[in-house]
Design a protein that fits this description.
Layout: E1 4-8, E2 19-22, E3 25-28, E4 33-38, E5 43-46, E6 49-52, E7 62-66, E8 72-75, E9 78-79, E10 82-83, E11 89-92, E12 97-100, E13 103-113, E14 118-122, E15 126-136, E16 142-146, E17 156-160, E18 163-166, E19 171-175, E20 182-186, E21 192-194, E22 199-203, E23 212-215, E24 219-221, E25 227-231, E26 234-237, E27 241-242, E28 250-254, E29 258-261, E30 264-267, E31 279-283, E32 287-290, E33 295-298, E34 304-309, E35 314-317, E36 320-323, E37 329-334, E38 338-341, E39 344-347, E40 357-361, E41 366-369, E42 372-374, E43 379-383, E44 388-391, E45 394-395, E46 399-403, E47 439-440, E48 443-444, E49 461-463, E50 467-472, E51 494-499
Parallel strand pairs: 1-4, 2-5, 3-6, 4-7, 5-8, 6-11, 7-12, 8-13, 11-13, 12-14, 13-15, 14-16, 15-17, 15-18, 16-19, 17-20, 18-21, 19-22, 20-23, 21-24, 22-25, 23-26, 24-27, 25-28, 26-29, 27-30, 28-31, 29-32, 30-33, 31-34, 32-35, 33-36, 34-37, 35-38, 36-39, 37-40, 38-41, 39-42, 40-43, 41-44, ...
Antiparallel strand pairs: 9-10, 47-48, 49-50
Length: about 525
Amino acid sequence: MGSNFGAVTNYEGEDPNTHVVQSGIINVLGTQSFGMYGTNNTDLKNFAIINVAPTSPGNESIGMYGDDPETKVYMLEFENGRRIVRDSIINIGQSSYGIFARNIEMNGGTINVGNDGVGIYSQGPDVDLTGGKIVVANNNAVGIYIDDATVAPKPTIVKGNLDMKVGTDSVGYLITASNTKTDIKTKAPNDIHIGENSVYIYSKAPQSLGGKIETESKLVTDGSNSYGIYSSQDFVNRGDINLKSGTGNIGIYSSQGIGQNYGTIEVGPSNVATGKYGVGMATGSGTVENQNHGNINVTENNSVGMYASGSSAKAINRGTINLKGNDTVGMYIDNHATGENYGTIQTTPTASGTGIKGVVVKNGGIIKNYGTINIVGGVGVYNEAASEYQVQGTNTSTTASSVGTGVNRTVAEKSITKVPAHPSPVSIPIPAVQVEPLIDDGNVILPQVPGRNLPGDNHNYVINDSSVEMYVDTSGINYTNPIQGLSNLSGITDINLIMGTEVTNSLNAKSDPNRR
């Protein structure tokens, strides 16, 4: 990355002063730039506004950047039980990043993510999002991106109790960590809206790592071809999912692990002509389970409650699947997959649709019924001759079973690719920086240096026998050159930056020495 900064720190150790707090406005202009930068166990705190300009892939700018595994970034509305007056906001332009750090705490404020941008990128281990809101735009934008750590990797824990809205062709949570496990818990205070062709949580993390996704968020799709949860690791859904906004929406898809549902899934409509089917729960090589308190309501024509396809795929119903619309299917088992029913698959009392089928079994699939199938006016189990129907429970359908062909449903897997930014380490040849209060009633106060007088031009350097001080012009017009040849100065023990106030000429706010 480049070395353009709004606020810079290079503090070391555990000293209480190792914090950078911004409560004004930082505009991050150009490419490969940072609004706030911290390293060596620094705390970066944003209480106000950071605007990050649009960039392009490979040239991303970042609002708040933590350069080491110990630095922590904060988006705060509350601190020490006290509400902060000004909400913290990060506005992110196209392809840019809001926060890029290992450890993050967000308890309020708003992150607005532009097209192809990223709100929060972290390699863990601690992403604590207990409040606030992330608004995700379109075109491969991501709200929260969890990736593998390249230095000192640790298991990552994500708490996602914040509001979120996901635009078109975008992702709320993207997990690509393939070497260390990631645990995620979400419980949004309001409904999460998911745009066209988008996903709330998408995980590529292998099931073998042992990580788990648990969500109580209520999800609502706003278009078609969207997913609530798409995961290769184990997950549990306890929130309600409403998929009725458009065709081809899928509530839960397990690509490898075990996905469990305890909530209510309202399945949306299907488009037979384009092969886009509304499905409550689906899997291609994992397991999906509708648990005891789970309900899947299939009321739209041609839609499906549970879908499994593939020799290692399994769909298990322990809850209730209600069917109503024309040609709806409770469980669709295909291509040597296995289906097990321990719960109830039934038509609703007001169902008037035709062609309703409790279970369809095709192409070597197996259905085992240990529960109840009751399809009034339809078929309980419809299977091809090459498939298997094992009767253990009760089937009181108008037609208990029927052998035939001609019922076809397909669910395609979804692939999301996002190449993360790779900011290079920033080298600031200053072993310690301490920024002292330099403003009194709007006037700049320059430190008095024993044994030396300040030059008339306050943009020059000031040295005494043991320290070097450098004035930093913050206008963005007159750029301060770095100090050269420090190694030639013997006896230097202190190096200080004097941050100028030129930036206030472009702001409405007045300087306040008491503000933190």
